[in-house]
Amino acid sequence: MLEIFPYKLDTKVQLSPDKLGLNFIPEKGSVFNFKPGQWVFLYLYNTSGSLWGKRAFSVCSAPTNKVYIQLGIKVSGTFTRRMAKMKTGERVGISGPYGFFTFEEKKMRNTVFLTGGIGITPFMSMIRYAKDKKLKNKLTFIYSNRDKNDIAFYKELELLSQQNKDCRVIFTLTGKIPASPLSSRSPLSSRSPLSSRSPLSSRSPLSSRSPLSSRSPLSSRSPLSSRASRGKTKKEVSSRPLWEGEKGRINGTMLRKYCFPYKGKYFFLCGPLPFMERMVQYLKNSGVSQEHIKIERFG
Questions:
Q1: Cβ distance 188 to 229 under 8 Å?
Q2: How many angstroms separate the CA atoms of 34 and 49, rounded?
Q3: Which of 110, 123, 141, 270 is the most exposed place for a label (fewest CB within 10 A)?
């Protein structure tokens, strides 16, 4: 008989403008055992206590976390909108765990995670588990989103990648990337030939004690100062992108850059079917066996 465990909402975390993390605590005892990457059924109830609906979600908290179970959602439909409006202390039911899309630490010594958007949730469970257990497994995570604001768990992943040399996180954006305004790094900035370190600085014959001081053609009112940025130089500076990470969808070129050679590596893919079909075909054509490719469909 299916066992549904009673839980209640503890906190909600804003992951991005349209993504939420919901932390549920058990009404009794601690969180049940599960493997990193597994999923559960979440049951929502009417005020009368009758079942309102249920839906499957991957767990994004680590199995080592026995205080709460975290589910990540993209608010896009009736069920997730209802979840987004839940109040602290509201009761739910959770059954599980289910699934075989799991990270096996002893077997998978070198692993690659590929996903986009809310498909990140099972990978957060795996990455957090590896961190909590202080595993030495090599993890490479390539995560695609439309723009920077869409990236869920951005700060946590960035910090994790900085602190753990065995965990590498690569962000890539598929949307249009805006250019930055004129910045202090322009050719006429502090490193410019006209800066304080230039031959025309305070030690120069053209310094403040020179006849060509503040009223000089080379002063701040000079055609070679701020007015110069109105021409070609300003256009060059304004084209500097705000994003310096990867651009475009996850593809073979990106995998060769960060994951080659592929021998001995395990590849986990989570996302829409067309994305996974394309990547599975590429990996197989590159000599990766089916046993080393794990997939979980989202959307």
A1: yes
A2: 27
A3: 110
Tell me which residue of 175, 202, 187, 276 sits closest to 233, measured CA to CA.
187
Instruction: Give the end-to-end CA distance of the chain in Å, rounded to a whole number.
Output: 29
- 169 touches 141 (CB < 8 A): yes
Number of domains in the chain: 2
Query: 90, 83 in Cβ contact below 8 A?
Result: no
Q: Model confidence over 171-197: pLDDT tens digits? A: 999 998 765 554 444 433 444 433 444
CB 223: neighbour CB atoms within 10 A? 9
pLDDT value at residue 212? 41
Residue 237 falls inside a structural domain: no
Same structural domain for residues 143 and 66?
no
For 192-228, the pLDDT digits (tens) are 433 444 443 444 443 444 444 444 444 444 444 444 4
Tens of pLDDT along 225-258?
444 444 443 443 344 457 788 999 999 999 999 9
Question: What Cα–Cα distance (Å) separates residue 12 from each residue in 22, 70, 71, 90?
Answer: 5, 9, 10, 12
Phi, psi of 41 (to 5 degrees): -95, 135
User: How is residue 33 annotated by DSSP?
Assistant: P
